[in-house]
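fyi for ur records
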Amino acid sequence: MESAATPENKPKEKWWTILRSRLIAHLQQREEQIFLLLSLLIGALTGLAVVAFIVVTERLGMRLYPVGSAAWRRVLVPVAGSLAMGVLLYRYFPNARGSGVPQTKAALFAGDGFISLRTVLGKFFCTATTLASGIPLGREGPSVQVGAGIGSVLGRWLGLRPEKVKALIPVGAAAAIAAAFNTPMAAVLFSLEEVMGDMHAPILGSVVLASATSWAVLRLLLGNNPLFQVPQYTLVHPLELAIYALLGIAGGFLSVAFTRLLLEMRKFFLHLPKSTRWWHPVVGGVTVGLMGWLVPQVLGVGYTYVGSALDGTMALKLMLLLVVLKLFGVTVSYASGNAGGIFGPSLFLGAMLGGAIGTVAHSLLPGYTATPGAYALVGMGALFAGIVRAPMTSVLMIFEMTRDYAVIVPLMIANLTSFFISSRFQKQPIYEALAHQDGIHLPSHSTRDESSQRSVAQIMRKSPQMLSSQMRVEEAVEQTRSGPFRIWPVADKGYFLGILNKEDLECAFVDGRKEQPLASLVETLHVPHVHADHALHLALERMSKYHLDVLPVIHRADLHKLEGVVTLPDVLDAYGIDRIGSR
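which gave:
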């Protein structure tokens, strides 16, 4: 019976395989048209995912810790939620930690557009668990990774070329922001300004299409309700512009404090053993739970309280207290590994800071200043610009929320002031710094601008034989003595550690350290290197700076993966120097 059943199954499997391969071949012939249709589908699916985020987190959160609930629930629920989420992240979804924006950019620039379906599902469920339990992180950043992941999964399933799969990443990201904030135009700008880093990206049409589709799905299912009910803004007196500039200064310094505190805390947790990561999020849960026991407004993203600040109905002392408590609650929650973003918290902090400054200004100069709600609104944009470093997206986002041109000038003053101060005192943007802590080197704007120039990848050669970190100095000297180059890469079981030059080996040999392993000589921190997409002149500059004739070429997403080496003769030959010298 078994032998008879087996042949019956084979034609079905073969039929399905043949049909899918024919479908993929047909789609590849019409890739451009399919890409636009795929943008519509990604927008619709991402819109549904964001709606599910909103409904699940808000309704579940209202059941777990309703308004006026017992204090013990406000402590227990965040602790239990962070513990459950920590176990899920540790055992099943390790790539779903954090905000989602750095991971999305890493997939675009260092991972060939690959985001697995497992990560998409894990990001959704872990973030939903986190937010529903009262951890004060946002849903917008995770939504970006979910939307980008939907695009990546669909693109790979349809057999699109890797370049097209990568192009679907910002398409999904724009769809996510459009639904999460109910701001379709700001979503397009964010995708181009922050994710792509290119305001002239050729995929603009697809980004707009996905953003509009996602926004339409949101309106269809949840209605045309803005994220915040914002009162009409008016500029009472030109003196207010100076106060808005002061708000921008305060917002810039608060942005710097937020970024540095988060990075330092996260650095501490990352240095702990990996086997302990399952309980790290509980630290954030306990911290938030204790804060929530005393001040319930700390729990959750807190958009309801942002609305109170915008209405001008929140007390000054409470707003100042929430600035301090949220600053520590959000940074500890994120740094300890909870799944959630920083978009929502930045808006909350900005609203509280702006509302507090507006309350003080209005009490001192009631005839020259608007109500505190106007300052809370501008404060939201100032913190977003200072923390996320997307000032134009911030201006457009607040404008879409208010639909009021009068807010543009004060908003631009505060945003650019905050952005300038944040950039001055915290050189590295937060998403770039977070990726760097994870061992991922994202390309800078200057690197992307140089992409049209000759790159390292064009002349990179395979790495020479790597020296084992366990090899003795004496053995290494014998092996490298006849080699053509001075620099040799050192690895430990295939993991690149650093480089050694012949002079260091010879000195160690002469000093009587013949039996020492090479691991004792290798400097593993700040290893001179380049990436494959770097411009060729950068490799030459670093060779000159470090006096090297060979540079290792490291993978952007894995600093222990050696892709090859670039040599000085090859660089000079690429510039035609050898040929010129021979004439």
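The two ends are 81 Å apart (CA to CA). thats all i got for now
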